Amino acid sequence: MASTSASIQALVVDDDTMIRKIHCKVLKKAGINTQEAVNGKEAVDLCSSGAVFDVILMDFAMPIMNGPEATRILREMKVASKIIGATGQSRAEEIQEFKDAGLDECLEKPLTLEKISSIIGLRSRTQVL
């Protein structure tokens, strides 16, 4: 992982436009470069095309390809990005399914910089929006 936030590349994967905007705003405020995908298939396609991300914020429930399926495929592709599940799901079985797919961490959304700063290696720049 990069040592400064300015060089961190993040992919925000969520079918909810508002959540994507919130997560991108939080990351951009910390100087993190962001790219967006609206479902797991788009995330897999981006990584297949050679895009490299330090961190991927992955929603659980999405059309076309959900978060656990996309995460499983990314791990099978040997994608080394830190994958953080961002979910509103509260059922333990669903969260466990997501973790079993290869997540590094699972957090409740919407995410704040405070929630993800230690996970993605940010230093004392934790500002809550």
UniProtKB/TrEMBL annotation:
The keyword Metal-binding is annotated on this UniProt entry: no
Domain Response regulatory span(s) in chain numbering: 9-124
Modified residues (4-aspartylphosphate): D59
Listed InterPro entries: CheY-like_superfamily, Sig_transdc_resp-reg_receiver, ST_Response_Regulator
Top-level taxonomic group: Eukaryota
UniProt cross-references to SMART domains, sorted A to Z: REC
Keywords associated with the record: Phosphoprotein
Any one GO BP annotation for this protein: phosphorelay signal transduction system
Xref: SUPFAM superfamilies: CheY-like (SSF52172)
PANTHER family for the chain: TWO-COMPONENT RESPONSE REGULATOR, TWO-COMPONENT RESPONSE REGULATOR ARR22
Protein name, per record: Response regulatory domain-containing protein
Organism: Aquilegia coerulea (Rocky mountain columbine)
